[in-house]
């Protein structure tokens, strides 16, 4: 226990020394600015394949892990943006949306490179193309997952019609929905830690930081939701019409700090292991 505390403490001070707070601020702002272009691209991609209704389901999947006090106002603004169906997947507007979405990926790369103490040797244009590829694959994956989530209740109703004994087990659909959201988070964290920063790492090398990140995210989400339930009016009186944006930005800043700390924790474990050897 003492050694685990020493490693966690070492990770925290390295987080401070590596300008973790500033990096987290950059990630939070980049994520917020990338969210809307990414969803515009998702909507265009869904309309291109005639899956127009899946865009709304994708938004719900993305925001399901957020506290309701944060997700509700942002969700309303997203719906306002996505009310117009976009079919211009190959136009300049959507190409720019993909490019601006990749800025969020690049901010994560910068934070993890700093956390793992590695210097990027790859060309900038190759890194940008890689980030754009993650955006495209992520959008297609979310649409595919949204299709399965929409199809699930239909299949369940069909199964209940044929086998009425399954009726009491309707909670399975809700469980699968939350499992899908959790799966998105886990896959995203594994991909980010293993392949975004420079160098090579195994799954065992990144697993501790990922598990701690997930645990701290759950705790921070619950605490932030409880805080907003009591003091949400403070944001309204301070930021007026920008209250919902500032709430989302503070929440993203908190989650980004935890994300960067997860990388610092993996690096601290590596240092402890090398020192012991």
Automatic annotation (TrEMBL):
Record carries keyword Repeat: no
Topology versus the membrane: Multi-pass membrane protein
Stretches that traverse the bilayer: 21-49, 89-112, 132-155, 175-196, 208-229, 241-263
Location in the cell: Cell membrane
Pfam families tied to this protein: Virul_fac_BrkB
InterPro entries xrefs: Virul_fac_BrkB
Alphabetized UniProt keyword annotations: Cell membrane, Membrane, Transmembrane, Transmembrane helix
Identification of the protein by name: YihY/virulence factor BrkB family protein
Source species: Ancylobacter radicis
């Amino acid at each position: 226990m003492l050694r685990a505390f020493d490693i966690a403490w070492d990770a925290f001070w390295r987080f401070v020394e590596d300008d973790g707070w500033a990096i987290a601020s950059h990630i939070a702002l980049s994520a917020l600015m990338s969210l809307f272009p990414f969803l515009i691209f998702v909507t265009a991609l869904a309309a291109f394949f005639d899956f127009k209704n899946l865009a709304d389901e994708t938004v719900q999947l993305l925001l399901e892990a957020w506290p309701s006090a944060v997700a509700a106002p942002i969700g309303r603004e997203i719906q306002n943006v996505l009310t117009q169906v976009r079919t211009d997947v190959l136009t300049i507007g959507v190409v720019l949306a993909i490019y601006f979405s990749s800025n969020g990926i690049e901010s994560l790369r910068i934070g993890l490179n700093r956390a793992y103490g590695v210097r990027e040797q790859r060309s900038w244009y190759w890194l940008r193309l890689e980030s754009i590829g993650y955006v495209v694959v992520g959008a297609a994956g979310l649409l595919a997952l949204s299709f399965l989530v929409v199809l699930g209740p239909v299949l369940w109703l069909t199964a209940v019609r044929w086998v009425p004994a399954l009726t009491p087990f309707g909670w399975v659909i809700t469980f699968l929905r939350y499992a899908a959201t959790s799966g998105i988070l886990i896959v995203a964290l594994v991909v980010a830690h293993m392949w975004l920063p420079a160098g090579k790492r195994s799954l065992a090398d990144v697993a501790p930081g990922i598990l701690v990140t997930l645990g701290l995210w759950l705790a921070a989400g619950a605490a932030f939701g409880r805080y907003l339930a009591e003091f949400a009016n403070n944001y309204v009186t301070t930021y007026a019409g920008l209250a919902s944006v500032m709430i989302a930005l503070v929440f993203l800043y908190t989650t980004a700090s935890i994300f960067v700390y997860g990388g610092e924790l993996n690096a601290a474990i590596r240092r402890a292991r090398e020192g012991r050897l």
